[in-house]
Specification:
By secondary structure, the chain is mostly helical. The chain contains nine helices and no strands. α1 packs across α4, α5 packs across α9 and α7 packs across α8.
Length: 224
Amino acid sequence: MKDTRQRLLESACKVFADKGFHDANVAEICEGAEANIASINYHFGGKQRLYEEVLTYTAAVAEQEYPLVADGSMAPTAEGRLAWFIRSQFLRGRSAGLASCFDQIVVHEITNPSPSHAMVFGKILRQRRDYLLEVVRALLPPGASEGHVQVCAHNIVGLFAFSHFHRFHSRRPEKHKRPPLPPPEVMAHHATVFALGGIEAIAKLPAIEHPPFRPTPEGEGERP
């Protein structure tokens, strides 16, 4: 049987993913973990510390189940690495387990930032962002402007971000329901074809200027 701390952590993952930091109820987390209300302070030191541990834990679970980074044996080309990255994002977003929790929490962070917003976008998402930029640079011609790299990466994120928002809204009351999306593998294939075509077209455009990415002193970086 899982210990109290682990039960609290897993219960909190689901509650924070469903409601975000601000609307998450400590009593509901404890109820889901079959623990008393004082156990969160005992094991985590409060709601925000628990939330930050959830961020780290859910990001690690997602990476373990659906890794974004493909090594040379899995995807020897830049096109393959991009396809792998996009596919993993769609599979994470549609997972029924804890692997989807982090990206659902990110949706809440975009619409209603928490006190840990800088940790999400400056620390946890930084590695994901840097990897995507690296893949995009490999797909563009040598010497492509940083502006083209940045814009392509942002547009690629938009291809799967909609799917995450769609899942979030599908849990709202009936009047806000959306029609179901195609299976994630189908969505990922179409998004990859679209992204590769877009990068090829962007490569033919004049260079555009874009300020280099720099985290703020607090650690908060640009999205994605």
